[in-house]
Amino acid sequence: MTGHSTTAASVAAAGSAPAAGSLVSSFTAGKFNAKAAWPVLRWDDNETICGRLVAGGVEIVAGDLAGSSGSGSGSGGAESAAAVVDSKSAPDEKTAKRKVLGKIPADGIQHFSIAPKADPIAIATFVPSRKDTPARVGLWEWSAAAPPTAPKSFKSLFTEEAEMKWHPNGVAVLIQSSSEVDKTNKSYYGESGLYVLSVDGKVSVAIDKSGGTVCDCAWNPNGKEFVVIQGCTYCHCHCHCHWRYCFLSLIIRCVLCCCVVVLLCAAQPARARAYSIQGNPHFEFGTNARNTIRFAPHARCM
Questions:
Q1: Is the peptide bond between 120 and the residue preceding it cis, with omega within 30 degrees of 0?
Q2: What is the pLDDT of residue 164?
Q3: In angstroms, rounded to a whole number, what is the distance separating the alpha carbons of residues 129 and 137?
Q4: Which of 16, 37, 191, 285 could bridge to 272 as Cys pair (CB 3.0-4.6 Å)?
Q5: Is the peptide bond before 91 cis (omega within 30 degrees of 0)?
Q6: DSSP symbols for 23-64
Q7: What's the CA dihedral at 249, 251, 254, 258 to 10 degrees?
Q8: Distance from C-alpha of 264 to C-alpha of 258, rounded to nearest angstrom
Q9: Where is 248: in which H helix or E strand?
Q10: pLDDT tens-digit series, residues 255-294
Q11: Exposed/middle/buried for residue 22 (C-beta within 10 Å: 0-12, 13-18, 19+)
């Protein structure tokens, strides 16, 4: 089953299922064009709820997929273990037993993400921009007693894609945006940006774009800061050559592309900088050939 085709899938919940591999519920996964849309089912850390990507928003169902919210066990998080079985064996009555708790409305949604450790549960949705309509990232606080009708906080921006990275405690999210076309014509490789948005709406900051392309960003596991790498790195050196060009033409285009990139990288090396949770820079790591950030789980080294 893939996120790029219309497929009927049955998901058997791990944990308190009567028997391993037994059918609990079945869903029909629609056609989703974005890689970030997969998996279409995501659980919160305690598996009390499960979010399902559907047309027009996110459907929230009981975490055990069978009807009684909160009976799930384990800490599988947003990508909890699940057994996928053949949909042809899925009886219709199983679908009828599924308990739908509510729906988060988001027309044109591309993907969503559930915050870790958040109480109440926080859910982020992303709707990409279309023509003159800006993209929209919404942060929602979920409550089964009163399903939300409007986001707790939101951010409007012009972008085609966005990756959302949650704060370790689920109080804020980093939004790493990217577009294939740079409207300012300053970059051949498109446009990128980074925003930090808190669930309570008190923080909504755009990180300075003057540092260049956003290569990577990551939260420190201690929750006090996040680190960003910006600038020209070799990870962005893509030569857009079409297969119809002859082999010699392809080589010439690749060589010219590499020469341009080397000159740009020499003028604007990658810079790493640490920011507070409010989006204020407070430490410089200098410039170097970097394009990836990884923290140790105990946050003592990066």
A1: yes
A2: 93
A3: 10
A4: 285
A5: no
A6: --EEEEE-----GGG-SSEEE-TT-SEEEEEETTEEEEEETT
A7: -130
A8: 10
A9: helix 247-267
A10: 776 665 555 554 467 889 999 999 999 999 988 888 899 9
A11: exposed
With H, G, I as helix, E, B as strand and everything else as coil, classify residue 297. coil
Return the pLDDT at 192.
81
The list of the chain residues with pLDDT below 50 reads 1-15, 17, 68-96, 234-245, 266-267
What is the predicted pLDDT for the residue at 279? 92
Structure tokens at 202: 């008190």
- Quick check: helix, strand or coil at residue 291? coil
* Residues ≥6 apart with Cβ < 8 Å to 186: none
Give me the amino acid identity at 83.
Answer: A
State the Cα–Cα distance between residues 298 and 165, nearest whole angstrom.
18
The Cα 248–Cα 265 span in angstroms is 26
Tokens 């993400």 locate to: 113
Which residue has tokens 């200098």?
286
Among candidate residues 144, 8, 166, 22, the one with its CA nearest the CA of residue 83: 22
Locate 147 and state its tokens: 């399903």
Closest to 46 in 3D by CA, of 170, 221, 224:
170
Q: What are phi and psi of 130, to 5 degrees?
A: -140, 120
First to last CA, the chain: 36
**Quick one: tokens of 16?**
């308190």
Tokens of 13: 């919940």
Residues in the chain: 302
For residue 217, what are its two tokens? 């960003």
Domain ranges of the chain: 1-114
pLDDT score at 235: 43
Amino acid sitting at position 262: V
**Residues 66 and 13 sit within 8 Å (Cβ to Cβ):** yes
Spell out the residues 6+ positions from residue 120 whose beta carbon is closer than 8 angstroms to its own: 141, 142, 143
CA–CA separation, 265 vs 125, rounded Å? 34
> What is the distance, to the nearest Å, from the Cα of residue 238 to the centroid of all Cα atoms in its chain?
23
